[in-house]
Write a structure and sequence with these properties.
The chain is built from 13 helices and seven strands. The strands form three sheets. It has a three-stranded antiparallel beta sheet, with no helix packed on it. A two-stranded antiparallel ribbon has the order 3-6. Helices cover 57% and strands 8% of the residues. It is elongated, with a radius of gyration of 40 Å. The chain is mainly alpha-helical and 350 residues long. The longest helix has 43 residues. The chain has three domains: 88 residues, no CATH class; 130 residues, no CATH class; 94 residues, no CATH class.
């Protein structure tokens, strides 16, 4: 009932306006008639954005030609059409922006797929193991699959279709490139003769990354699933082998590094001596160094007792080095996986 009453009132109102304008014979009579011609087009649904522009132009002419004429009713009549036009324009821009955003997303995924897949036999040399894993992970296939369901871009040359084709051919690509042989089996075999447990672990981890990367795209790839199980068992054994060389978690965290301090560190007690750990020293400070290895010292010294060294300050000119500069590590001290030394006048304890 309310809508019917509103419609009747609107018709009456417009009719009143028409009758008022019909009786007008002032200087703005021509643009006034033209204004209502534009309004009729908008009412009938035949108007366009230019129709609204024309109506606004007529309003301007009316005001210029007859400043005394009250255009409030004309402006009120035009207002809803202008608002609807702005709304439609904004919706169109939003739709276009969404389409561009969607296209850019799929193009970005396609670019990333090029870095992990090839129609031929391989991609860039050296893109294996952890590097390859990180590339695959960056694609975020779970997100892609969700967005793929929502897109209407399904043309034969659209990015979603191109990506789908890559994914469909991925297992065949893996076979063409022989990734299992070169990037998994080869490092596993090489790890058997590794010089120390850390080298073995590093090789096995690279093989594991390769398997995990492949399985992110092809989760049911049986050969890679089998090798991943084998690698995890071998890594467990390598970790157990490595553990016997670590005197503490601190040792493990600083593996193959020199830790500097103002007093000699005690193996297994380093964290309790944290105040002694330094990276910067003043003139006259005692400077102690502790080298943490993943094997016993004798395994890297090969029967030697003199370890040649060269120490630089701020990566500048060597202040200690040359033919006669070395640390002497007696054979009796080489049965540990760490050794200590001191620079300056203070003598290190054994």
């Amino acid at each position: 009932m309310k809508s019917i009453i509103f419609s009747i009132l609107l018709i009456v109102s417009i009719s009143t306006i028409y009758s008022q304008e019909a009786s007008y014979s002032g200087p703005a009579k021509v643009p006034l008639r033209s204004f209502w011609t534009q309004i009729d087009k908008l009412k009938n649904g035949t108007g366009t954005a230019s129709t609204i522009s024309n109506a606004e132009r007529m309003l301007k002419q009316i005001k210029e030609m007859d400043p005394a004429y009250n255009t409030a009713s004309l402006e009120e009549t035009l207002k809803p059409y202008k608002e609807n036009a702005v709304k439609a324009s904004n919706e169109k821009k939003q739709a276009a922006g969404k389409a561009d955003e969607e296209r850019n997303y799929f193009r970005n995924v396609w670019d990333k797929m090029i870095g992990v897949y090839s129609k031929g036999m391989d991609i860039q040399p050296g893109v294996t193991g952890e590097v390859y894993y990180n590339r695959v992970k960056e694609i975020n296939l779970a997100e892609y699959k969700e967005k793929r369901k929502e897109t209407n871009d399904v043309g034969p040359n659209s990015y979603p279709t191109l990506i789908d084709n890559m994914l469909a051919d991925y297992d065949e690509y893996v076979k063409r490139a022989d990734r299992l042989k070169w990037n998994v089996i080869a490092p596993m075999t090489k790890s058997r003769n590794a010089a120390n447990p850390q080298d073995k672990t590093a090789m096995l981890k690279e093989a594991r990354y390769e398997c995990e990367a492949i399985l992110m795209i092809s989760p049911e790839n049986a050969p890679f699933k089998q090798k991943l199980e084998e690698i995890n068992k071998l890594l467990g054994a390598a970790d157990a082998e490595s553990a016997k060389f670590f005197t503490s978690d601190f040792h493990k965290e600083n593996l193959n590094s020199i830790v500097w301090s103002t007093q000699q560190l005690k193996a297994g007690k380093e964290k309790e001596m944290s105040t002694a750990l330094k990276k910067e020293f003043k003139t006259g400070d005692y400077i102690f160094g502790t080298v943490y290895l993943g094997v016993n010292v004798k395994d890297v010294m090969n029967g030697n007792t003199n370890l040649r060294v060269r120490i630089k300050v701020d990566d500048g000119t060597a202040i200690w080095g040359g033919d006669l500069s070395y640390i002497e590590i007696p054979l009796s001290a080489q049965d540990k996986s760490y050794f200590r030394f001191v620079t300056g006048s203070a003598m290190a304890e054994r």
